[in-house]
Amino acid sequence: MIYVDNNATTRISPEVLSVMQPFLTEYYGNPSSMHSMGQEARKAVNEAREKTALFLEARHDSEIIFTSGGTESNNLAIRGILKSFPTRRHLITTQVEHPSVLNVFKELASEGYAVTFLEVDSEGRLDPNELRDALSPDTVLVSVMAVNNETGVIFPVEEIAQYVKSCGAFFHVDAVQAAGRIPISLKTGVIDSLSISGHKLHAPKGVGALYVKKGTPLSALTVGGAQERDKRAGTENVASIVGFGKACEMADEDFNGRNERLSLLRDKLEAGILKSVENTCVNGGGTARVSNTTNITFKGLDSESILLALNEEEICASSGAACTTGAVQFSHVLLAMGLSEDHVRGALRFSLGRFSQEEEIDVILRKMPGIISRLRAIHQTSGV
What we know:
Layout: E1 2-3, H1 14-20, H2 22-25, H3 36-56, E2 64-67, H4 70-82, E3 90-94, H5 99-110, E4 114-118, H6 128-134, E5 139-145, H7 157-166, E6 170-174, E7 193-197, E8 208-212, H8 227-230, H9 238-252, H10 255-276, E9 280-282, E10 293-298, H11 303-312, E11 315-316, E12 318-319, E13 321-324, E14 327-330, H12 332-336, H13 341-345, E15 347-351, H14 358-382
Parallel strand pairs: 1-11, 3-4, 3-5, 5-6, 6-7
Antiparallel strand pairs: 2-8, 7-8, 9-10, 10-15, 12-15, 13-14
Helix pairs in contact: 1-9, 3-9, 10-14, 11-14
């Protein structure tokens, strides 16, 4: 199989799997236990925390909370901060956030919060000045993604942070798609909380981290034991945390070289499709993006039929739409960019990763023109 869906999840690195295995079969003690097996597990968790803090350039490893992934980290940051400020009721986010942020803010709006959902332009860019103008003395929290998961568009979080700090609000960043793809440095202290996820970093699913700047008030959402400094109850997922720490360590290795290679592969794929397949265009291609992502619309077709045809050729990509209970839901990201439903209907996302090879790009470029030509002929014949 040729896998170009790394923004959805990544293949676990062999090095990550290797460091995890002893904690599944040999050092399987509970980190809260006093005996030697428990303390061995505790030591491993602490070492992973240090590696994660180093990767994020956090000022101290005590600012790292291990979670089950990006969704939990985002929920914990948003609701955990709001619990400490019940009288301030204005929130700001964008219309193109991941559902683990966007749906939380919609839920908060239904609970009586005033929520500003900022727009983006036709390239998916956020204007920091619009965010600045939306801030008010009642604003308690702003949450903005660092990189969009569908288009790869990079958001100016450092600039946004300065505006947020100037009005005394807290700033949360969903960096799930940014980690390992653009530099992240939290040592300036302008970001209050930040989420990352293991399975986007070639670590296992079910593990992630939330950075919370020292002094930022955060209430736990789950009640139980005192794990993660009373912020996230439950026995630690030791093996996955160890793997996560290793993945963070590896993400720093040859950072520039790896991303330059992926950028060349992405650009080759993108240019090749635009040249060989008529009526195609890149969504978000006119602004800064991460190196591994391209979102391309094949006009006149629906993404589901393209994905099925690609799958028959053993190529795994993804679409700008999701099928839920039999109904197609168009990408809220592309719609927020002002694109029509007809345009969004034919959008595919190709996202590369550590294990992507140029030979795979060549195969995709060789097969794609025939696939699209065949589907368009069927489309015309059927009159759909």
